[in-house]
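# nightly structure sweep
# worker-07 picked up a monomer target from the shared queue
# config: single-sequence mode, recycle default, output format = structure tokens
# input follows
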Amino acid sequence: ITYLLFVVLLLIGSLLRAHSPTETHSVFRLADGILQVQLELPWAVAEAAQETNEAYVPAMPRESFEELVLTYVTNRLTLLQAGNNLELLHMQLEEVEAEHGLQVNLSYACTSLHGLTISNRILFDHEPRQVNHHRIWRGAESILYQTNPEKPGFEIASTSGTVTTWARVLLFALVVLLILSFYAHKRVEAIY
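# output follows
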């Protein structure tokens, strides 16, 4: 029963965990020539946008505040392919009240993840311990990257030669079957 109580407390604790003010999380998905980027940001982004922009006034209209935050984010998130900036097609800001943060949705014109260079410097000017997490989806498989003030960017390697998750599972299962058949064969030999 102690073990069960521990598991329940662990699950409840993970559900009640607040968004860390020193972390951002982003998801990148490519479909039909459009790269969708969804950023989950702590409220500190709004504070950083206000601090770094001389145009900020405390009683500014909501639309101006959204533009201020989106400008801050897009100026610090750079997506390059073959040395050229990707064309930004759409941007949208949403408040996520339950998590005390913001969600930014961006869309870029992009045909391939191969050679895509991402630099994410969001909140680096505001928090020296900032870590930005990135999940890049390639079909059914995702790759995780992190950026921080010491390493603000990364390049996505070629998709050719990538072993899919299913191939890894099948390879592992084959190795296990070979080991089991070897030991089963040894046991049969020992009996006769």
